[in-house]
Amino acid sequence: MVLFLCFLFFLFSSATACDRCVHQTKVAYFSQASALSSGACGYGSLALSFNGGHLAAGVPSLYKDGAGCGACFQMRCKNPTLCSGKGTRVILTDLNHSNQTDFVISSRAFMALSNQGKGQDILKLGVVDVEYKRVPCEYKNQNLAVRVEESSQKPNYLAVKVLYQGGQTEMVAMDVAQVGSSNWGYMSRNYGAVWDTSRVPNGALQFRFVVTSGYDGKWIWAKNVLPADWKPGMIYNSGVQITDIAKEGCSESECGDGSWK
């Protein structure tokens, strides 16, 4: 953890800090959103309900070994004839293995880049030039939640999938303990948004998370999440919402001119 915080300090001390950097790339699309929902983040069919189906696969520098899962990005196409100035928002649910584009997005999101009535025209292009930036994820009336994975088995193994992570953050650590106990045990990122442990405390369970926030990291406590009789396949409300914003280290040109809201 100390090394992680030192890295963040170095990053922001060597670059201009702003809420979000504006990047230039090309974007392609998948014809089937299900290709993204079954991706590396592990959201499965749940992803189809995220963000109106505006989903994205991101390159490794955005996927970040799973820490980028659930991140939200605003993007707009740079073709003035076809594209709207506002663009659309996508949520990262998969890893993009292509080195041709930073993102591959769902066809629904791809069409949303266009001006009204131009959706089919932009689909015919297949690939478009865009600019994009990281933006906070917003889940109205929805707290951070965990889904107990089917592979979980009392008392030897617990795997949970983190859902509805708000704000502009990345989850970099997760611990679990019995409710009322200070004997915390660390969980490991299995893959994507899935964390697990083979040391499962008895009884009802609480969690604490470290998320990126501001210029470093921040602890988030969820004090009573899983009941003592937790069951695989169930989704449990954490009772907390994450609204923090992690600063990015950008060049002055990447910070943008403030015209794109």
TrEMBL record:
SUPFAM superfamilies, sorted: Barwin-like endoglucanases, PHL pollen allergen
Gene Ontology terms: biological process: anatomical structure morphogenesis
Signal peptide: 1-17
PROSITE patterns named among the record's database cross-references: EXPANSIN_CBD, EXPANSIN_EG45
Superkingdom, natural source: Eukaryota
Subcellular location: Secreted
Chain ranges of the Expansin-like EG45 domain: 38-142
Primary localisation category: secreted
Keyword Glycoprotein: yes
InterPro entries registered for this protein in UniProt: Expan_Lol_pI (IPR007118), Expansin/allergen_DPBB_dom (IPR007112), Expansin_CBD (IPR007117), Expansin_CBD_sf (IPR036749), LolPI (IPR005795), RlpA-like_DPBB (IPR009009), RlpA-like_sf (IPR036908)
Gene Ontology CC entries for this record: extracellular region; plant-type cell wall; plasmodesma
Limits of the Expansin-like CBD domain: 156-238
Keywords assigned: Glycoprotein, Secreted, Signal
Gene3D superfamilies, alphabetized: Expansin, cellulose-binding-like domain, RlpA-like domain
Family in the record: Belongs to the expansin family. Expansin-like A subfamily.
Name of the molecule in the record: Expansin-like A2
Organism: Citrus x changshan-huyou
